[in-house]
Amino acid sequence: MFENLQEKLQRTFKNLRGQGTITDENISEALREIRLALLESDVNLTVVKATIDHIREKAIGTQVATALSPTEQIIKIVHDELVEILGKDTAKFKFSSQPPSVILMAGLQGSGKTTTAGKLAAWLKKGGHRPMLVSVDVYRPAAREQLAIVAKSVGAQIYIGKTGDDEAGTPLVERLAKEALREARNFGNDVLIVDTAGRLGIDTALMDEMSKLKALLNPSEILFVADAMTGQDAVNSADAFHKQLGITGVVLTKMDGDARGGAALSIRNVTGAPVKFLGTGEKPDAFEPFHPDRIVSRIMG
Ligand code: GDP
């Protein structure tokens, strides 16, 4: 079994009790443990460095209270620091004042975009909304078919539309997006969730397409879907998508796996965009609004 961060710190601080104050010397081993734990949890190096500096600043000079163990004090400092980075409260989901609100799903292939689109529809339905789904992935018929299955399983409406060739002046992707928006308006759907084509990596064609969709649909949310298991890669692609599109939130999927979730911290720190939801399984209801506190507890073990 791995020793979790709390246990490691307990061990490190065993001899500290009753020593008076926390000093640069007696905290260095603890900081080393915290640094390792954060790196093992996929928190990126820049974030780790800044966090460690902050923790050192806050901790040094702290009186080691006789009643409270120094470990508990340090753990509280680390905990508060990580929650601070993640943003204290659960970020709100944004709707536009003029329905339908458009939610643009962004992310790499395999990140869980289509599954998440369905989960989001189910979550919105529970909240009394009438979401419509559309896939503008014109490159992979299987992806559109998958969204249709997902839509059926959660009982959400879907716009299928006709595919075919690009027409003069209007690429197929844009035509589908426009038609779906019109359809949502006509049917009184207050939210349109747009599942987009993913690629294996970032490429300019994908980014151009996403930018065009953004301009066309004026989405209230651009949600970047990231696979928590991919750690540092998720952070890099979030950064690339954010630079091009200005993402408004992040969904971290596959949190039912053994990823500690440090990617949440790094993505938040690198993009400034809050993590809004976690995916915790393959089923439509394995989805929850993000609470910074829970991830921090998970990172700290
Ligand atoms: P897309 O290519 O980004 O649209 O990804 P998919 O939605 O097709 O998901 C890729 C795979 O990841 C599928 O097998 C999904 O069932 C699975 N998946 C998606 N979200 C989660 C999650 O939160 N937990 C787990 N365990 N699997 C997930």
UniProtKB/TrEMBL annotation:
Residues 274-287 form the SRP54-type proteins GTP-binding domain. Part of the signal recognition particle protein translocation system, which is composed of SRP and FtsY. Keywords: Cytoplasm, GTP-binding, Hydrolase, Nucleotide-binding, Ribonucleoprotein, RNA-binding, Signal recognition particle. One of its GO terms (biological process) is SRP-dependent cotranslational protein targeting to membrane. It is found in: Cytoplasm. GO terms for molecular function: 7S RNA binding; GTP binding; GTPase activity. One of its GO terms (cellular component) is signal recognition particle. Composed of three domains: the N-terminal N domain, which is responsible for interactions with the ribosome, the central G domain, which binds GTP, and the C-terminal M domain, which binds the RNA and the signal sequence of the RNC. GTP binds at residues 107-114, 195-199, 253-256. It comes from the Bacteria. Involved in targeting and insertion of nascent membrane proteins into the cytoplasmic membrane. Binds to the hydrophobic signal sequence of the ribosome-nascent chain (RNC) as it emerges from the ribosomes. The SRP-RNC complex is then targeted to the cytoplasmic membrane where it interacts with the SRP receptor FtsY. Its EC number is 3.6.5.4. Belongs to the GTP-binding SRP family. SRP54 subfamily. It is an enzyme of class 3 (hydrolase). It catalyses: GTP + H2O = GDP + phosphate + H(+). This is Signal recognition particle protein.
